[in-house]
Write the structure tokens for this entry.
Amino acid sequence: MKDDITTIPISDIFEVRDGCPLCRLRDMLEERTVDFILGGAMMEPDVRISTNRQGFCRLHFSQMLERKNKLAVALMLESHLAEIDEKLLKPGTFLTKGPAGKFPLAAEITQDCFICERVEKGMERMLDVLVNTWVKDGDFREMFESQPVICLPHYYAACSAAKNALGKKDSERFINSAASVVKKGLDELRKDVSWFCRKHDYRNASADWAGAKDAPERAVRFLTSR
């Protein structure tokens, strides 16, 4: 495929054939965002305002704590906790009701994540590039269709992007192409999960695992993208 500055990340991801390519794309965006937030960005006022307000989810806190720069995490926690303390103790603020009886400030503090938001926006942009590249580039279509699997959450996300970005004919072609990759991976996964179950029958104790030893983990990744 012919690469340019917008398609190079897509091309690099799809050159590998190991699991869901869109999970790899998401992982790449997460890695870059974690590096960004633990680098000089943590001292940028607009970034700190956002992280103080939003905080991070459990997964992304864990990813940051696994890095060597734990001081950066502590500095963000210091100011985030201070903002929570101020809003929690301010009468009538934290649990102020919004539309439909919900508590928007409480929900933002307890459910939002700076990294999740950036990764989601990045995925939206990348999926738009992906579906348009699929239409224009026959070589990329071959790379796409040679992938071993696409997980269900990313299948849904890619099909939604195609519906939004492409005309009816092209979106239907893309969805059919993606469905064939999902079906191929699902058939293999069902076979491996079934063999994993049968392998625990004493009559199959000496039989080879035939690549099914990690089938439950792969099934969870297929269903959840994690």
